[in-house]
């Protein structure tokens, strides 16, 4: 088999080649059976029509075309593996020349995993980690505001079995329940107001530390992406945009609204949103490609027992989810976490 591979833009390639007629002819018997399997001819049962009649009825060209498709199905894995091609899309296959006793010529177009040239990501991470950050503290004002939000949330909470009355709702809007030992015990596992404030302050600090950690991770990743060379496949950007639309649709639905009505209210179409979101979608795709590339370079793979544990947790929560999709998601998230830990260690 003679083939030629041409690189196109957007990480697409075009494979052209030919298959000798002798190799094509090996599939003739199977091709005849396939085209004749559902052929209905008076006097013959379906699938039992003689070969001669099938050829007369269907025509030699139809059989030849079927032979070509079968030959390409057989050859495709060898082409991909033999040339170390990493496709991320289904192939668009076309037969460009087909005639008896002649080689069959074909064309295959597909999107492949883009080539990624990483910068010195460890050195970039080291520089980012060396940048001085403000220490995480919880101010009295932050604590006061959070307590006020909690008091507001408890404004019309009644004892078990009691209902909120119209009189309750007509109360002064600025009237909030007093922060007492009784109230905080009702909210959660707190001994008294002092214990509540201590634990609340710890929780606020933990949340701020988490946000600071995520911010630092994004700064490291963005700096690496900025210096990386990536030919971004349009296929992946479109897939990310569809995912973003699905997420928004889901959020709107949870609010009890219809997505199309919501779009009407903001005077935008899905295409308008996709155009606005494209820069963000491209950044997301590049970021994940860089994380995947680093994991490959560093031979980072998640522990199988950790994967299974997380898959089981998610499947228990979302019973209708496809396990294979959950597995892919979990592996990606666990791998990303290990990559970030590696980058954070560059101090």
- The chain-level structural class is alpha+beta
Cα gyration radius (Å): 31 Å
Calculate the mean pLDDT score and round it.
89
Per DSSP E runs of 2 or more residues, the count of β-strands stands at 6
Order of helices and strands: EEHHHHEEEHHHHHEHHHHH
Report strand order across the widest sheet: 1-2-4-3
Low-confidence stretches: none
Beta-strand residue fraction: 5-15%
Q: For the terminal residues, how far apart are their CA atoms? A: 53 Å
Instruction: State the shape.
Output: elongated
Alpha plus pi helix count = 14
The helical percent reads 55-70%
Largest sheet: 4 strands, antiparallel
User: Quaternary status of these chains?
Assistant: single chain
Q: What can you see in these coordinates?
A:
With 347 residues, the chain is α+β, with helices and mostly antiparallel strands. Among the domains are: 2-113, Alpha-Beta Plaits, CATH 3.30.70.1050; 116-231, no CATH class. 59% of the residues lie in helices and 9% in strands. It has 14 helices and 6 strands. It has helices spanning 21-25, 28-36, 51-58, 60-82, 121-130, 140-153, 166-169, 181-187, 193-226, 234-254, 259-265, 270-297, 304-317, 323-344, and strands at 2-7, 12-19, 92-97, 104-111, 116-117, 229-230. Strands 1-2-4-3 form a 4-stranded antiparallel sheet. Strands 5-6 form a two-stranded antiparallel sheet. Strand 1 (2-7) and strand 2 form a beta hairpin. The mean pLDDT is 89.
């Amino acid at each position: 088999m003679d083939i030629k591979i041409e690189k196109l833009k957007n990480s697409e390639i075009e494979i052209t080649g030919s298959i000798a007629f002798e190799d094509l002819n090996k599939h003739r018997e199977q091709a005849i059976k396939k085209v004749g399997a559902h052929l209905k001819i008076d006097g013959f049962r379906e699938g039992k029509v003689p070969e001669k009649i099938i050829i007369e009825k269907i025509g030699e060209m139809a059989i030849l075309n079927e032979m070509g498709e079968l030959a390409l199905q057989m050859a495709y894995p060898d082409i991909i593996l033999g040339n170390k091609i990493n496709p991320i899309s289904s192939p668009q296959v076309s037969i460009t020349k087909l005639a008896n006793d002649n080689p069959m010529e074909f064309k295959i177009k597909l999107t492949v995993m883009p080539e990624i040239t990483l910068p010195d990501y460890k050195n970039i991470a080291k520089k980012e980690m060396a940048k001085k950050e403000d220490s995480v503290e919880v101010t009295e004002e932050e604590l006061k505001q959070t307590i006020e939000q909690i008091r507001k949330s408890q404004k019309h909470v009644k004892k078990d079995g009691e209902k909120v009355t119209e009189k309750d709702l007509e109360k002064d809007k600025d009237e909030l329940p007093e922060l007492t030992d009784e109230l905080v015990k009702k909210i959660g596992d707190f001994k008294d107001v002092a214990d509540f404030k201590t634990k609340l302050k710890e929780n606020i600090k933990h949340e701020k530390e988490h946000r600071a950690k995520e911010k630092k991770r994004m700064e490291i990743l963005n700096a690496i992406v900025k210096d990386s060379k990536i030919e971004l496949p349009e296929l992946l950007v479109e897939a990310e945009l569809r995912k973003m639309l699905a997420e928004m649709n889901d959020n709107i639905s949870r609010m009890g609204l219809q997505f199309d009505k919501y779009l009407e209210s903001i005077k935008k179409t899905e295409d308008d949103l996709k155009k606005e979101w494209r820069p963000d979608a491209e950044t997301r795709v590049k970021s994940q490609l860089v994380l995947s590339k680093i994991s490959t370079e560093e031979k980072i793979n998640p522990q199988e027992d950790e994967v299974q544990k997380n898959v089981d947790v998610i499947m228990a929560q979302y019973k209708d989810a496809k396990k294979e999709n959950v597995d892919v998601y979990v592996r990606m998230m666990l791998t990303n976490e290990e990559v970030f830990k590696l980058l954070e260690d560059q101090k």
